[in-house]
Specification:
With 181 residues, this protein is mainly alpha-helical. Helices cover 58% and strands 7% of the residues. It has a two-stranded antiparallel sheet with strand order 1-2. A hairpin with a 7-residue loop joins strand 1 and strand 2. Helix 1 packs antiparallel against helix 5, helix 2 runs antiparallel to helix 4 and helix 2 packs parallel to helix 5. The longest helix is centred in the first third of the chain and has 32 residues. The C terminus is likely disordered.
Length: 181
């Protein structure tokens, strides 16, 4: 195993663990009260999500090199990059909808002060978030456009768990156990 691959794997796992722990501590402290607190918290969460996405992006490049495949260091869309990697291995990227939802949510958290100012596609009135809904753990949560995006510690724990699962899947050859045939 390349040392860079091991470092990239550890960085993603440690970053996800740190972000999940921080969010749970923030929830326990109630530090997101008030409109200014929500705006700051939204930006911090967005930055954390951006970092996890970037760590995964770099890990996919390392996984490509590990498998003798061409890496795509200039490809910034992590869902597309991971999808291409899995396709090269003859695998599917079942997590694509969640990764794409996380990217949209992350952008709105950062640029729109945590407001769902647009839907998943032009003219849609719902935004799909990147974590499971409370009613149905198999479906991703949604909010109506114009709503405030509330991110809880358990939401982030779920997202961080996804990133850790993806990191481990890349370590084990490309696909998580839930997708293997």
């Amino acid at each position: 195993m390349r040392d860079e691959f091991a470092r990239a794997h550890a960085t993603l796992r440690n970053g996800a663990a740190f972000l999940a722990k921080w969010m749970m501590a923030q929830d326990a402290a109630g530090s997101h009260a008030g409109p200014h607190g929500h705006r700051r918290r939204s930006r911090v969460i967005a930055n954390g999500l951006r970092e996890l996405d970037r760590f995964l992006n770099l890990l996919v490049d390392e996984a490509c090199w590990r498998h003798g495949l061409p890496a795509q260091p200039r490809q910034r869309n992590t869902a597309n990059k991971l999808g291409s990697f899995r396709a090269a291995l003859g695998l599917e990227l079942a997590e694509r909808p969640q990764l794409e939802a996380l990217a949209r949510t992350r952008d709105l958290l950062f640029h729109c002060n945590g407001m769902a100012l647009r839907g998943d596609r032009r003219g849609e009135r719902l935004l799909t978030l990147g974590w499971p809904g409370s009613d149905d753990a198999a479906a991703l949560a949604t909010v109506a456009t114009g709503s405030v995006i509330i991110v809880t510690g358990s939401d982030m724990a779920s997202v961080c768990g996804l990133y850790q699962q993806l990191a481990d899947a890349l370590l084990e050859g490309g696909t998580p156990p839930s997708i293997t045939a």
